[in-house]
Amino acid sequence: MKRMRWIIVAAAVGALLLLFKPDGRGGRAAADVARIEAVDPFLNPGQPVADYLVYRALSSGEARMAVTGSSVTRGTGATAQAYTWRGLTEQKLRLAYPALKHLKIGNFGHSGYTSVRLLEDEVTAPILAAKPDVLVIETSVINNHNKNVSLEDTYDSLRRLHELYTGALPEARIVFLSPNPCTDNQFGPPVNALGLRFTDYVYGTEAFIRDQGWDYVNVHDEMLAEMQNRDIALPDTLKDGIHPNDLGYAIWADILWPHLTTR
Predict the structure, then answer these.
(1) Start and end of every SGNH hydrolase-type esterase domain (predicted)?
(2) Can you tell me whether residue 9 is helix, strand or coil?
(3) Which of the residues 17, 106, 215, 227 has the least number of beta carbons within 10 Å of its own beta carbon?
């Protein structure tokens, strides 16, 4: 009888040891919960975009990101897609965050498109179908300037883009970017038919977007500041006066990185 009691006690102790074994299933589950809670947007308001992508990867098994805009988002001027700001950002996120090692950033940039044309179905339908968790919208105002789109129509198109994507993708994070700084403009005069310069569009859209309380990065000014810090001339970052070369896109990715990864 005593022998039987000892067998029962030993079995119970063994079961408890298995239950609380650090690398057991219970331990892994607790660790997984802790990892998700660390990046849960409801527990971490104001979290960086990268943390939100990690949360989506851990909670749903996949994180999705997309970019849209003009040719400088498409990657014109780079020797390969891997050297565009989109491609470099994808690589950085994969390397820095194990949960994002399979992340792909969809490229929905369209050469020559104004912000108004970014509302066309051929642009929006594939993005909506991709259901990105994070969507970066480059404002396309190089083309708005060249094609004489008024500032009022520019602002209205950005508002409609925000309404479209937040309405259809309510859990997605939306980030607006300005395009890069330019030198010579081979597609239009420095002052367009409306009497506006390219920088009027950059600063006008910045003020409009910030007034709405939306996420925004002034790539234009931050790239110029970074070039000054590194003693790099603007023409050396451009292929044709408008589109960045590999160096220009690398600077773009460098200045974008902290906006995606820090509060």
Answers:
(1) 69-251
(2) helix
(3) 17
Report d(CA 40, CA 65) in Å as an integer. 17
User: Who contacts 152 (Cβ-Cβ below 8 Å, separation ≥6)?
Assistant: none
* pLDDT tens per residue across span 134-149: 999 999 999 999 999 9
What is the side-by-side strand order in the sheet with 134-138? 105-109, 65-69, 134-138, 173-177, 215-217
**What is the SS3 assignment for 87?**
helix
Nearest to 58 by CA among 30, 39, 75, 44: 39
Which residues are bridge partners to 175 per DSSP?
Answer: 136, 215
d(CA 8, CA 219): 69
Question: What distance in Å separates the CA atoms of residue 141 and residue 244, rounded to the nearest whole number?
Answer: 15
Residue 42 structure tokens? 């409801």
Amino acid identity for residue 36 in this structure: I
pLDDT tens figures, 94-115:
999 999 999 999 999 999 999 9
The stretch 28-37 carries a mean pLDDT of: 64
- At 125, which amino acid appears? A
CB atoms closer than 10 angstroms to residue 136: 26
Inter-residue contact 161 to 115 (CB < 8 Å): yes
Do the Cβ atoms of 228 and 173 come closer than 8 Å? no
Beta carbons within 8 Å of 14's beta carbon, 6+ residues apart: none
The answer to whether 245 and 238 are in contact (CB under 8 A) is yes
